[in-house]
Amino acid sequence: MNEAKVKEVLSAVIDPALGADIVGHRIYNGCEIDGDKVLVKVAIPTPAYPQDKRRELATLIETALKGAGAKAVTVVPEVVTAFQPAPSEKALLKGPKNVIAVAAGKGGVGKSTVATNLALALHRHGARVGLLDADVFGPSIPTMLGPPERPPGTTADQKITPAIHHGIEVISVGFFVDKGEAVVWRGPMVHRLLQQFLGDVQWGELDYLVCDLPPGTGDVQLSLSQLIPITGSVMVTTPQEVSIVDVVKGIAMFEKVEIPILGIVENMSYYVCPACGHHDEIFSHGGGKRLAQEVGAPFLGEIAIDTRIRFGGDAGVPIVMASPDSQIGQNFMTLASTVALRIAASVLGKPKRSPRLAVIK
Fold first, then answer.
1. Which of 141, 233, 239, 269 would be 133's cystine partner, CB 3.0–4.6 Å?
2. What is the CB neighbour count within 10 angstroms for residue 294?
3. Could you tell me if 48 and 125 are in contact, meaning their C-beta atoms sit under 8 angstroms apart?
């Protein structure tokens, strides 16, 4: 056995989570050889990589190398976060490595609920996460997350320190205006606020920054696309046609500003009566999946109507934190893993600009 032989053998191993060979997508991270014993280093590209897939990957590597003559194989995984370095003209944001925009074509579809639980689910997977409430005119994130463990503040050099809620870093205009006060601003003022939230906030070394965007295709979306590199967007819809039509417009906007669509989530997909188990499709069903097929985007899953989601948002303890083992909690955990894996596959599959790997400490 030698390193060239190991790479040749492992180039035929397909990563069970990413669906790509582990050498070409830089999952293979080197080896140490001692006679017929081989130690293989593996770079797991996201903390949200499923545990069962990690075990499967190790088994595939061991089987392949033993089939090539190795007597003993040890697989040493190291969790890293793959990301694409920002171009110099979009270096305003310091710290976060991947930016996930959560968007919707219209209001009332549960976009902020999805953004909040997605961020918390990524955190529960072990990632370092921030949440930016970019819905300037209707900031609901502070209410949904409840009292912070640490309120936002400022440093001696006038930088903003984000609030800490349930272990994630959070910034919202809702922290800085009275609860009953309306934000009545023109586009340039919104643009300057976003510049401040992106450039003057000490986000720290985050794996993912989730941005809860306002509904529609307005100033905030355009400003963010101009100011920072957005890794991809998650589109939220309900099943009925009136929501789907507006999502199509949102997808068209992201395509114009060259932001990839990570996938579509169908929220309020169905309702199951907790007393009798009756299944009711209040807002129709399947519209999100049909839309994903029509526009060629991945379908990321369905989220049911559940009173625990509403209660958690009102009480400041989202369902991912309040009931992580519930079916809805697990749905959000799966959503987070799927989104993170799609980001990893996209980044590691781009040969033009080599990604950097940020090691999780």
1. 141
2. 10
3. yes
155, burial (CB in 10 Å: exposed 0-12, middle 13-18, buried 19+): exposed
Mean pLDDT by 10-residue block, N- to C-terminus, for the chain (361 residues)?
A: 93 95 94 94 96 96 96 95 79 89 89 96 97 89 94 90 96 84 77 89 95 86 88 92 87 90 92 78 82 92 90 92 93 96 90 43 32
| Residues 341, 346, 352, 355, CA torsion sign | negative
What pLDDT sits at residue 115? Answer: 96
β-strand pairing of 37-44 with 72-83: parallel
The pTM (predicted TM-score) of the whole model is 0.91
Burial 253-277 (b: 16+ CB within 10 A, else e): bbeeeebebbbbbbbbbbbeeeeee
Non-local (6+) Cβ contacts of 50 within 8 A are 17, 337
The pLDDT assigned to 350 comes to 67
Task: In whole angstroms, give the CA distance from residue 5 to residue 10.
Answer: 9
What single-letter DSSP state applies at residue 206? Answer: -
